[in-house]
Amino acid sequence: MSVIVRWAPSPTGRIHLGNARPALLNWFFARRHSGRYVLRMDDTDLVRSTREFADGIEADLAWLGVVPDLLVRQSERTALYDAARDRLIAMGRLYPCYETEDELERKRARARLLGKPPIYDRAALGLTGEDRARLEAEGRKPHWRFRLDGRPVHFEDLIKGRQTVNTASMSDPVLIRADGSYLYTLPSVVDDIELGITHVVRGEDHVSNTGTQIEIFEALGGAVPVFGHHNLLTDAQGQGFSKRLGSRSIADFRAEGYEPLAVAIVATLTGTSLPVEPYESLDAIAAKLDFSMISHGPARFDPGELDGLNARMLHAMPYEQAAPRLSALGLEGEAMWLLLRENLARFPDIAEWSKLLTGPVEPVVADEDREFLALARALLPPEPWDENTWSHWTETLKTATGRKGRALFLPLRLALTGRPDGPELRSLLVLLGRKACLDRLP
């Protein structure tokens, strides 16, 4: 069987880490099985969905390294949903209901007082044609519910194992609103059938929906895909990511200078048995990650872990990989990159660190060090320089002044770089050259 997966975001905002998790897990599964990846924009909410958000989602996926094989938009597929609607109505599986939200809430409250589950009582199934005509004459427009079989629905979950959802404990779900617009469920099932989706990989908060959807698949005569429900990514406090709560978006991480692969690794390998460490590529992760490695417990995002991973990847990045990005910043030079990369937290930091070589640098000179630095200037060795020059110079200064350790090295670092931290001075000295050092020493 050829694997076809889909990821189906709603373009009502920019995607965040919680959204990126299923987007990437589907990508890994497709790559691992040489399958196809469908990006489906669930844009039936015409009020909140925008093309700008949809384009942003595509850009965010591309930045993460995900390029779908097919893009579809539900707003362009309404005829398919209408046809499925008509079939379900003709079969008696989709029926009109006229209760207002207030009336439904009163029914639910009454059921709770009686100690019963607050599920829909199917009163609308008892309406006659005359009843419906009277209600519509009053100006009421029906919403449409799918009549569930009310039975245990069993399925083998790729991640969670054998699952059972008893639809007898659920209300018949509303598939069509009173204004005629579709909710998520029916278009999703219709698209999965029409697109030949073989595997649906999504968050575990959808497990209870699966029983309903399997019944709709069966009612429409479609092949039921294999489902896999992964643990959800939460923030450090255990709270879920949300557009509504203003969680940092993937676009935010991009603007802040994080490596896309670092973001992808943390979004997907957190909450698995694979270590959160550098990988060569998404394909390298796909080759290692089996869904059996996904924990059944929560996956908690640690911002510090992302920062550490991002830095590790930069510190090991070869010049060939960095060169095009350096060029875009007006920088070049392998020696410069190899010297400065271990100081980077995020790639754009290189622009500031490169000033250690190109200037301007404001030397920091303490009054008690002026005499020492004047001597250091006088004893600065002649060129040519190599990586032994630093040790020769500092040994000469140590002998002449008796200074050692921090008292010897820190004043030199502050004078040459203007800061107490940074790359090793042994290599920096060679790249600076004698003239730049004389200019910075008082």
TrEMBL record:
<feature type="domain" description="Glutamyl/glutaminyl-tRNA synthetase class Ib catalytic">
    <location>
        <begin position="3"/>
        <end position="274"/>
    </location>
</feature>
<dbReference type="GO" id="GO:0004818">
    <property type="term" value="F:glutamate-tRNA ligase activity"/>
</dbReference>
<keyword id="KW-0436">Ligase</keyword>
<keyword id="KW-0067">ATP-binding</keyword>
<keyword id="KW-0648">Protein biosynthesis</keyword>
<dbReference type="InterPro" id="IPR020058">
    <property type="entry name" value="Glu/Gln-tRNA-synth_Ib_cat-dom"/>
</dbReference>
<dbReference type="InterPro" id="IPR008925">
    <property type="entry name" value="aa_tRNA-synth_I_cd-bd_sf"/>
</dbReference>
<dbReference type="InterPro" id="IPR014729">
    <property type="entry name" value="Rossmann-like_a/b/a_fold"/>
</dbReference>
<dbReference type="InterPro" id="IPR045462">
    <property type="entry name" value="aa-tRNA-synth_I_cd-bd"/>
</dbReference>
<comment type="function">
    <text>Catalyzes the attachment of glutamate to tRNA(Glu) in a two-step reaction: glutamate is first activated by ATP to form Glu-AMP and then transferred to the acceptor end of tRNA(Glu).</text>
</comment>
<dbReference type="InterPro" id="IPR020751">
    <property type="entry name" value="aa-tRNA-synth_I_codon-bd_sub2"/>
</dbReference>
<dbReference type="Pfam" id="PF19269">
    <property type="entry name" value="Anticodon_2"/>
</dbReference>
<dbReference type="Pfam" id="PF00749">
    <property type="entry name" value="tRNA-synt_1c"/>
</dbReference>
<feature type="short sequence motif" description="'HIGH' region">
    <location>
        <begin position="9"/>
        <end position="19"/>
    </location>
</feature>
<comment type="similarity">
    <text>Belongs to the class-I aminoacyl-tRNA synthetase family. Glutamate--tRNA ligase type 1 subfamily.</text>
</comment>
<dbReference type="InterPro" id="IPR049940">
    <property type="entry name" value="GluQ/Sye"/>
</dbReference>
<dbReference type="InterPro" id="IPR004527">
    <property type="entry name" value="Glu-tRNA-ligase_bac/mito"/>
</dbReference>
<feature type="binding site">
    <location>
        <position position="243"/>
    </location>
    <ligand>
        <name>ATP</name>
    </ligand>
</feature>
<feature type="short sequence motif" description="'KMSKS' region">
    <location>
        <begin position="240"/>
        <end position="244"/>
    </location>
</feature>
<dbReference type="InterPro" id="IPR000924">
    <property type="entry name" value="Glu/Gln-tRNA-synth"/>
</dbReference>
<keyword id="KW-0547">Nucleotide-binding</keyword>
<protein>
    <recommendedName>
        <fullName>Glutamate--tRNA ligase</fullName>
        <ecNumber>6.1.1.17</ecNumber>
    </recommendedName>
</protein>
<keyword id="KW-0963">Cytoplasm</keyword>
<comment type="subunit">
    <text>Monomer.</text>
</comment>
<dbReference type="InterPro" id="IPR001412">
    <property type="entry name" value="aa-tRNA-synth_I_CS"/>
</dbReference>
<feature type="domain" description="Aminoacyl-tRNA synthetase class I anticodon-binding">
    <location>
        <begin position="336"/>
        <end position="441"/>
    </location>
</feature>
<keyword id="KW-0030">Aminoacyl-tRNA synthetase</keyword>
